[in-house]
Amino acid sequence: MPVRALIFDVDGTLAETEDLHRLAFNRAFEIAGIDWVWSRDLYARLLRVTGGRERIRFYADETGAADIDSAALHRTKTEIYNGFMSPGVLELRPGIERLIRRARDGGLKLAIATTTSRANIDSLFGATMGKGALDWFASIRSGEDVRNKKPDPEVFELVLADLDLPPEDCIVFEDSENGLRAAKALSLPTVVTPSIYTWDNQFSAADLVVRTVDEPFSMRELMPEKELSDIPESLRDLLFAQMV
Ligand code: XBP
Ligand code: MG
């Protein structure tokens, strides 16, 4: 069965955005006069809670800060993050732009399934491939479209309905265990490219774990227990094509 659509996560998968999110959270806390500073170690733990507003709420509960307005803080954080995001601030991860362009040229459908806010998708493309590239995506579903964020599969259910395709016709690209769990709840074939904040996540349910999408042959290092024949053929075809 040939692949008919690629579905991309955003944060950590398209680009290493999470440290910029962390800085935006810290700036929002500072502006609000809240004496929280999220270090990288703390943020790595907090990333287990998906969604920025939910992450703020979780930390407020954990630290007993009952009077925190998580929605207002998150709005400020989103504005700050989008202010930070401009050309040259960061790049797409290796091979991502090539994969998207080739998939489009090859007639594959493209989709985005993410927990992040819609404004963050627009600003990332604005700073990298250009906002016009978003027109290539047949489905873009963000944290604002769902009641339950990853690891709940809701965002992938919406994307599959938009694409009108069964899971086996698609390939998901993810960087986190929460994202992988969401995709695998629907049996979606999934490639994981671990990111700086997810290196210690558990990825044994992935069909393929590679460092980046343009070096698929790192699989021996990242998945020592797998044989090439364990990788679904459609996935192998796609990744081999990416190499030439
Ligand atoms: C990653 C997340 C997001 C971002 C922040 O989502 O958990 O919450 O950290 O975005 P994904 P918001 O990898 O699925 O894109 O503050 O807008 O929620
Ligand atoms: Mg991610």
Short summary of the structure?
With 244 residues, the protein is an alpha/beta fold. The protein is 41% helix and 10% strand.
Gyration radius, in Å: 18 Å
N→C terminal distance: 21 Å
Largest sheet: 6 strands, parallel
Mean pLDDT: 94
The main sheet orders its strands as: 3-2-1-4-5-6
Give the overall form. Answer: globular
Order of helices and strands: EHHHHHEHEHEHEEHH
Total strands: the figure is 6
- Which cofactor or ligand species appear? xylulose-1,5-bisphosphate, magnesium ion
Q: Output the CATH topology of the largest domain.
A: Rossmann fold
Q: Proportion of β residues?
A: 5-15%
CATH architecture of the largest domain: 3-Layer(aba) Sandwich
- Tally the structural domains: 2
What class do helices, strands and sheet pairing give? alpha/beta
Number of helices: 10
Give the % helix.
40-55%
* Name of the CATH first level of the largest domain: Alpha Beta
Stretches where pLDDT falls below 50 for ≥5 residues?
none
Q: Could you give me the name of the CATH homologous superfamily of the largest domain?
A: HAD superfamily/HAD-like
Notable traits:
10% strand, 10 helices, binds magnesium ion, binds xylulose-1,5-bisphosphate, DNA polymerase, domain 1, alpha/beta, 2 domains, 6-stranded parallel β-sheet, Rossmann fold, 244 residues
Structure explained in plain terms:
The protein has 244 residues and is of the alpha/beta class. The protein is built from ten helices and six strands. The protein is globular and about 55 Å long. The chain starts with a strand and ends with a helix. The model has no long low-confidence stretch (mean pLDDT 94). Residues 9, 11-13, 175-176, 179 line the site of magnesium ion (MG).
